[in-house]
Design goal:
Layout (H helix, E strand, L loop, with lengths): L7 E5 L3 H13 L3 E5 L2 H8 L6 E5 L7 H11 L5 E5 L4 H9 L4 E4 L4 H29 L11 H14 L5 E4 L6 H10 L8 E5 L5 H9 L16 H4 L3 E6 L6 H13 L1 E2 L8 E2 L2 E7 L3 H6 L5 H7 L2 E4 L10 H11 L10 E2 L1 H9 L5 H15 L4 E2 L6 H8 L3 H10 L4 H15 L4 H8 L3 H11 L2 H12 L1
Parallel strand pairs: 1-2, 1-3, 3-4, 4-5, 6-11, 6-12, 7-8, 8-11, 13-14
Antiparallel strand pairs: 9-10
Helix pairs in contact: 2-3, 6-7, 13-15, 17-18, 18-19
Length: 469
């Protein structure tokens, strides 16, 4: 598993002795090297690792260097490839360069020539990636639906730029509502697979009995209710990207089948015997700590390492509150029709409330709050009255702890002060427990423990009844 941006080099040559010599040169110069003996092994390794360059022998059994280069270019157009061969004919060199090889070196090689060419190739690859990033910034394209200027999001954008020129499996970690599917779509849309399908599956939303059929498909008559053949999501994602959300919810049996698909890149439908090839990129997401699940035996370790070739951490909104203004404006622009085009921004007072809120529902909660505000807004700006009452109360009311500290400064016991504050909140909200909890900023367990302690359970009913008269 690789989480840092390391200089990994693929060295592909069927001659074991030459591989050993070249590998020694590269490692001495500080590179991390993966040695591979065939074109097929190279293509398979590319689904699991992210090299900065490939040194590829031209003449190998099985897939030739030219055939391997063709397939690399189809899926990884920006990855630098250096062809190594004993064939000095111009025809071979021209063929390789036309297919997009960075350079062409003839054997026997010397260390200086190989290392110089490799450094130039890596620098060229990094420059190409940076140019793509700058073009995106200049044109204002960014990543659709994703916004933010915080340091946390700048780190995410740098990782997205890197993943756009790769085809490795990605695991996105993040809390519910933080935008994991948006990130997955951004990776797909900025990659060489952007013309292919993006297929999203929420593993937690599908009953276990149906999940295998959903993912792998089934043949007609394979089980009760299977009236027709069904194409699974892996087949649908051929030449594109499959996004599996909440991957940690998979059962042991589905985990085993998923591992087999990743190993073979072939799918077997439920009730079928044929193995169907599918060329897909897999992106997964989870809000759980799968490393802990692996240690506890709840998630297969071999599958985890297949899925988490590159791990991307998506920060919660409370850790990037400086992005709230730009996100709020993005949601206003995206829902302009809902507001009849009158609302153009957020007032300073409303923005202050948004910035102080802790956002347990993350970006999705902010989006919902903004949509509600657009519906009820009367002016050209969203004002505090357009925001949910719970947020306004939370903003204007000190916590129970702060209120008790204030009372304690004025004299009296804390227990008496707690009792008075609880009764005041209950009377103010006519026995509404949820409203009282929000005002006091305490949880449900503590609220009902205080009710019992002060003997207020029956008092709540009296207050409700008096409020209804």
């Amino acid at each position: 598993m690789r989480t840092e941006l390391e200089s990994l080099i693929f060295l592909v040559d069927d001659d074991e002795n030459l591989r050993a010599v070249f590998e020694r040169w590269l490692r001495k110069d500080g590179y991390d090297v993966a040695c591979l003996s065939s074109g097929d092994a190279c293509l398979e390794a590319l689904t699991e690792e992210e090299p900065e360059a490939i040194c590829l022998d031209m003449n190998m059994p099985g897939l030739s260097g030219i055939e391997t280069l063709e397939r690399i270019r189809e899926r990884y157009p920006a990855l630098p490839v250096i062809i190594l061969t004993a064939d000095e004919t111009a025809t071979t060199a021209v063929s390789a360069m036309k297919l997009g090889a960075h350079d062409y070196l003839t054997k026997p090689l010397d260390a200086t020539k190989l290392l110089t060419t490799l450094k130039n190739a890596i620098a060229h690859g990094r420059l190409s990636m940076r140019v793509t990033q700058l073009e995106r910034e200049v044109e204002g394209r960014g990543y659709p639906g994703i916004a933010g200027n915080s340091n946390a999001m700048k780190g995410v954008f740098r990782q997205l730029d890197r993943l756009a020129v790769s085809d490795v499996s990605v695991m996105i970690h993040g809390e519910s509502g933080s935008g994991k599917e948006l990130i997955a779509r951004a990776i797909h849309q900025s990659s060489s697979r952007c013309r292919g399908p993006f297929v999203a599956v929420n593993s937690a939303a599908i009953p276990e009995s149906l999940l295998e059929s959903e993912l792998f498909g089934h043949e007609k008559g394979s089980f009760t209710g299977a009236a027709n053949r069904r194409i699974g999501r892996f087949e649908e994602a051929n030449k594109g990207t499959l996004f599996l959300d909440e991957i940690g919810e998979l059962s042991a049996s589905v985990q085993a089948k998923l591992l087999r698909v990743l190993q073979e890149r072939k799918v077997q439908r439920v009730g079928g015997s044929a193995l169907i090839h599918s060329d897909f990129r897999l992106i997964t997401a989870t809000h759980r700590n799968l490393s802990d699940d692996v240690k506890a035996g709840k998630f297969r370790e071999d599958l985890f390492f297949r899925l988490a070739v590159f791990e991307l951490e998506l920060p919660p909104l409370r850790r990037r509150k400086e992005d709230i203004p730009v996100l709020a404006q993005l949601f206003i622009k995206g829902n302009k029709d809902m507001a009849g085009s009158r609302v153009t921004g957020v007032s300073a007072a409303a923005l202050s409330i948004l910035l102080k809120h802790e956002w347990p529902g993350n970006v999705r909660e902010l989006q919902n709050v903004m949509q509600r505000a657009l519906v009820v807004a009367n002016g050209v700006e969203i004002v505090p009255e357009d925001l949910p009452e719970r947020m306004r109360i939370s903003e204007s009311t000190p916590s129970l702890k702060a209120q008790l500290e204030q009372v304690d400064e004025q004299g009296g016991t804390l227990e008496d002060a707690s009792k008075r504050l609880l009764m005041s909140a209950l009377e103010k909200h006519e026995g509404n427990a949820s409203a009282a909890m929000r005002e006091l900023k305490i949880g449900r367990t503590r609220f009902y423990r205080m009710l019992k302690k002060f003997g207020f359970e029956d008092k709540m009913d009296e207050i409700r009844q008096s409020g209804n008269k």
